[in-house]
DNA sequence: TCACTTGTAATTATAATGATTACATGTAAC
DNA sequence: GTTACATGTAATCATTATAATTACAAGTGA
């Protein structure tokens, strides 16, 4: 299975808020760019707000970033939108048979490996900031246009 | 979401076949240790067989490893049981708005980052062999018993 | 032949996702 | 203060993957 697109959408939203900083980024505006329903955007925005990444107020149109672009890593976004729980990227079968040497040890043996693997994946996300993403998009736009 | 427990069960199965190499590892025997249904085991076994990790024959009870323990990495098992497709650990929303600079570039920008992240995760699995897992379990058993 | 095994198809319950409708609540311009 | 419009949320629905289970065809060997 795949990690929910909430993560990719979260990045999209934050980048667009930045690049549209002189305009008003309402949930409808953002939804049009992502190509989804405004409610989906508002739900994700709620998570980003809870994690202190955006400022948004009931009744007041438009969202703003709550931090500098360079202070938000992709790992921050990933954690904010709850796509993967800590130590739970890999699921391990429950209740293996304790009467069997393999059954009673397999969980403790593979858990640290799975955890290390998940952490390696997350480290890569931690080393990329939204600023990097915005710069890359700006660069692509200049070449194309 | 989490990666299917097929992966953990696949490891469990292969380790148990090895540690029970003097006995007969039928799907029912394996299912008892994993604590699941024999059909689940046979389905996973089919994938492991297709990838050349085990030898198993219709009508003939018992499975054997098709390679040396030290020649099977956790990545081999992971690939065999099809829990994550190539470049698809993270899903990216389809059809973002091409009229928006962010919409028309977001996919190309974040895809390489997601791919690098997935590869980092898989590299960790590649560096662990079934031999390592068996040794760890054996060590734990000696301490406990 | 018979008991037992593997290989598979089909069915079911459960859970997450993403889209959508509906509506309560907050904001600000008039 | 009313009105237009925005956010916040609950509820519903279709889709999809998982894991368990039943049923049965086909292979194996005593």
From TrEMBL, chains A, B:
InterPro entries xref list: Tscrpt_reg_Rrf2, WH-like_DNA-bd_sf, WH_DNA-bd_sf
Pfam families: Rrf2
GO cellular component: cytosol
GO molecular function ontology, one term from the record: DNA-binding transcription factor activity
Name of the protein this chain belongs to: BadM/Rrf2 family transcriptional regulator
